[in-house]
UniProtKB/TrEMBL annotation:
Record-annotated Integrase DNA-binding domain positions: 28-97
Pfam families: Arm-DNA-bind_3
Similarity comment: Belongs to the 'phage' integrase family.
Molecular function in Gene Ontology: DNA binding
Annotated protein name in UniProt: DUF4102 domain-containing protein
Length: 483
């Protein structure tokens, strides 16, 4: 399109914008203070000021950065900005980045606030996301996002590791990466082009600076080997009976007991730590066989929950709640903290460390590892994937059945959950704890039942079902002999 030379004036520009049906036009300002300013007008009268030029010292193509919208910007201001743009290009800088870095008021903290304002986050999620901002240094989070360089990212990433941990540092930088991606989509210039055109967090990938698995914690890859189950169950039992070394040697440690019960419930249910730790006693049935959430509680406490839910528990999970109930702690939460004023932390680091120390398997155990372990065990014993998701409150976009909401289906889920619990007890050398209808079962009988259950043609869901079937057969045989 040919350029039309013209000595711009403010009134002339506004008149040109009002013309309809004149087609696309391209004008070049010939005023002595034009500074290379040009005007593009569309057939519908939408205009844009811009300049042309190359960045000094680069071999790139001609740039045409936008200066502003003539319907919103005075000609005098446009000429001044055009002059700044040319000066920046002479200095070897991209004016689209350099100018807006000076004039865009967008600190990392303000972008973070925009980020959370655009999302409907639950209180727990909001607390987690805000935690990323708190982990940053005060200087870093107040920096303009366009002035942050790659070496700034590397330095902050390493300093967060020193103040916290490598995993926290990775999570914070993943959040910063998300902020830059959002800024590129939201902060636009007059031509609706992104002002934020680079993401310095990419340096952690290109230079392989992430501390763990490209910035992801790798929790999905962590599970519990069955050979370590005896050590873990033993460590949990030791924590329940733990007594202080220097103080309170004649008294069990309340917090250690609660944490041990928390870990045990997670092991035998596969629930998310955040879902389990906030359970209140009014949600637990009198016999501790079920935990219920009202629609409001489910929406508030369960991640990605539909309005629901009454969750059936296997015997081991039930026993955990019965143990806690017998302690009669003066707290509404099932898993109270030391002061009984709130619930335990979802990932209690001190107690994770104690469990790891007592288990002594060479692997670190956190509250989150039990979820993956439970799902792995459930898959191994033949529980189908849809049922596993229901048992552990996994996110589901489609439900084939509203599982767990009517009594027969809850009992079916309880049997599947018990199958997983039986597997854990078997490999944890706890077969002596297996009980049917409050009657102690010889461990050899359970092993026979487990062997039968492992066969593909087994019509039973759990070892308990097989033992019950054998009991009925034996009773029928005895009655036949006595008749």
């Amino acid at each position: 399109m040919p350029k039309i030379a013209c000595n711009f004036s403010e009134s002339w520009v506004q008149e040109e914008l009002k013309k309809e049906g004149a087609g696309s036009r391209l004008f070049k300002d010939t005023h002595k203070k034009a500074n290379g300013l040009m005007l593009r007008v569309s057939p519908k009268g939408k205009g844009a000021y811009f300049i042309e030029g190359r960045i000094k010292g680069s071999n790139g193509s001609v740039l045409r950065p936008s200066v502003g919208d003539p319907s919103k910007m005075h000609l005098y201001e446009a000429r001044n900005i055009a002059s700044e743009f040319h000066n920046l290009m002479e200095l070897g800088k991209d004016p689209r980045v350099a100018y807006y870095s000076q004039n865009l008021s967008a600190s990392l903290e303000s972008v973070h606030n925009d980020y959370i304002s655009q999302r409907d986050l639950k209180d727990s999620s909001l607390k987690s996301v805000n935690g990323f901002l708190k982990a940053m240094s005060p200087k870093f989070k107040t920096r303009n996002i366009l002035s942050i360089r790659q070496d700034d990212i590397i330095k902050e990433h390493e300093s967060i590791k020193v103040r916290h941990t490598g995993k926290v540092a990775d999570k914070v930088m993943r959040h910063v990466d998300a902020l830059y991606r959002m800024a590129a989509a939201v902060y636009l210039d007059e031509d609706e082009m992104p002002i934020v055109q680079r993401n310095p967090v990419d340096v952690l990938r290109t230079q392989k600076k992430w501390f763990f698995n490209n910035g992801y914690t790798g929790r999905k890859a962590e599970t519990i080997d069955t050979v370590h189950l005896p050590s873990i169950l033993s460590a949990i039992a030791q924590m329940k009976a733990y007594r202080g070394v220097n103080k309170f040697v004649h008294k069990e440690n309340q917090s250690m007991f609660v944490a041990a019960c928390f870990f045990e419930l997670l092991l035998f249910t596969g629930w998310r730590p955040s879902d389990a730790v906030s359970i209140e006693w009014h949600q637990v049935s009198d016999d501790c066989k079920e935990v219920s959430w009202s629609d409001e509680e489910a929406a508030e406490k369960l991640k990605n929950a539909e309005g629901m839910y009454k969750a059936p528990l296997n015997r081991q999970a039930q026993n955990v709640l019965l143990e806690l109930k017998a302690r009669n702690f003066d707290c509404k939460y099932v898993f109270p903290n030391a002061s009984l004023s709130n619930h335990l932390k979802a990932n209690p680091t001190d107690y994770n460390n104690k469990l790891t120390e007592l288990a002594d398997t060479g692997q670190r155990y956190t509250a989150g590892i039990f979820r993956k372990a439970y799902q792995t065990f459930a898959e191994y014993v033949g529980v189908n994937s849809v049922t596993i998701k229901r048992l552990v409150f996994h996110t589901q976009k489609h439900y084939t059945v509203q599982g767990g909401y009517i009594f027969p289906e809850r009992e079916n889920l309880r049997k599947k959950s018990q199958r997983v619990a039986d597997f854990i007890l078997l490999h944890g050398d706890r077969t002596n704890e297996l009980m049917t209808r409050e009657v102690q079962i010889d461990s050899k009988l359970f092993l026979y039942a487990q062997e039968k259950l492992s066969k593909n043609d087994s019509q039973f869901d759990t070892a308990e079902d097989i033992l019950e079937h054998w009991c009925k057969q034996g009773r029928a045989f005895e009655e036949m002999k006595n008749s």
